[in-house]
Amino acid sequence: MEETISIKDIFQTLKKRWKLITLLTLIAALISGAISYFLLTPVYESSTLILVNQKQSKNQLDSTQIRSNIDMINTYSVVIKSPAILDKVIDDLELEQSVDQLSQKITINSQENSQVFSLTVQDSNPSKAAEIANAVSGTFEKEIKDIMNVDNVSVFAKAEVKENPTPVKPSPLLNIAIAVVVGLMAGIGLAFLLEYMDNTIRDEKDIETLLDLPLLGSIQKISQHK
């Protein structure tokens, strides 16, 4: 006989196992919170703004030159993360990391049709993040003149350390929220699994379902009184 599950059965299962579901959800939230607050290293970021604008001899705006400057930003993004720039930054700041490791900390962001792009550095130390961002931007501004024979780059906003810097990651509240959802789903799944594996006969309906026979009658339990 094919067994079907009604919405009523689902709610009964959830009601029966609500303590298990709640316990797993709380455990997941507590573990996520403990890891986020006590085990994961906070990461801070600091950014500089770099302008790409060819110096003109006359006070005229050349749309072709502006378009060219914008197109060059993609190339500059590659140059900034190259050993030609990062090796010098590592030597100047005496960093104990490789070019690849430093490159992974750097993110270049640009907006469409803008001659300005940002250089963002992430580090566990907010002061070090600002120092690296300024060093990379300054080195790039100086070295790009020889690398590509151009003079259209200038840093117009340096990175600064805020008075009370806030880490960009991890995000404890987000991690806890995700853990709550995962714990809730795991609890519900385990509740239905336990219910499926429970072969205990609890009422007349279970007998009819198990034996596939109609129930003719039942004997009530009679308590003995002295």
TrEMBL record:
Entry keywords, A to Z: Cell membrane, Membrane, Transmembrane, Transmembrane helix
Localisation per UniProt entry: Cell membrane
Domain Tyrosine-protein kinase G-rich, residue spans: 141-193
InterPro entries reported in the protein's UniProt record: Bact_polysacc_biosynth/exp (IPR050445), GNVR (IPR032807), LPS_length_determ_N (IPR003856)
Membrane topology designation: Multi-pass membrane protein
Principal subcellular localisation of the protein: membrane
Domain Polysaccharide chain length determinant N-terminal stretches: 3-93
Protein name: Capsular biosynthesis protein
Protein species of origin: Peribacillus butanolivorans
